[in-house]
Amino acid sequence: MSIVEVCGLTKIYGQGDTAVTALDHVSLAVEQGEFVAVMGPSGCGKSTLLNLVGGLDQPSEGQVLVDGIDIATMSDQRVTQLRRRRLGFVFQFFNLIPVLTTVENAALPLTLDGVTAVEARQRARDWLTKVGLGDKLESRPDQLSGGQQQRVAVARALVADPALVLADEPTGNLDSKSADEIADLLKHAADEWNRAVVMVTHDPRIAAHARRIVFMRDGKIVDDVAVGGSDPTAEARTAMERAGLL
């Protein structure tokens, strides 16, 4: 069974003559351990799709099924629990709390979910070590590089052992070296830690780290291709050209 499946997903903002269709009957399924990149021009619906899958917004039509359950049928409390326990989020601007240490930031989803402080800190330390920050546990965000801060954000996304990680332009605020490292880390999360990962990006070089690329335009999916040959970046660019995005 798919970790997440969207069926006929539509999102319309506004009404009447001012209505804007951000998503237009999109259908997509993502399996456990699959790394999917979503690409397309600004305003094509990429981030709207992620927000709907993450339960951060409500669709105008269609369904978002997580573990086979339509999240529209859940109470607000249940959706909040779903986000804390089954979903992990990574954003472009890190969203770390400046006054908290690295381990406190990474432990935050567990702390908010009522996990004891001792267990939350231990699990956070374990994940920070896995993402290469075992020597930065007591540092604060302003003592870390941008790439290190995003590693903290990835550890925070994984600390609750979610089935699905949603990453919205996670490399957009990083230099090329750090961007590649974060993309590799997300690939590792899928390949080695068996998480489903859906990543929005505008960069074909970053998208090439994924095993599958979904291309969007004008609120619709216009292509869906597997990558992973000898030159995945070239594959991504070729697919973008075919989809009319270059």
Give an overview in words.
With 246 residues, the chain is of the alpha/beta class. It has one domain: P-loop containing nucleotide triphosphate hydrolases (Rossmann fold, 3-Layer(aba) Sandwich). It is 35% helix and 25% strand. The chain contains eight helices and ten strands. It has a six-stranded mixed sheet with strand order 6-7-8-3-9-10, with helices on both faces. Strands 2-1-4-5 form a four-stranded antiparallel sheet. Strand 4 and strand 5 form a beta hairpin. Helix 4 packs across helix 5 and helix 5 runs parallel beside helix 6. The radius of gyration is 18 Å and the shape is globular. The protein starts with a strand and ends with a helix.
Provide a short characterization of the protein structure.
This protein has 246 residues and is α/β, with parallel strands linked by helices. Helix content is 35%, strand content 25%. The chain starts with a strand and ends with a helix.
Write the CATH fold name.
Answer: Rossmann fold
Element pattern in H and E: EEEHEEHEHHHEHEHEEH
How would you classify the helix and strand content by structural class?
Answer: alpha/beta
| DSSP E strands, number | 10
Low-confidence segments: none
| Count of domain modules | 1
At the fourth CATH level, what is the homologous superfamily? P-loop containing nucleotide triphosphate hydrolases
Features:
globular; Rossmann fold; alpha/beta; 6-stranded mixed sheet; 246 residues
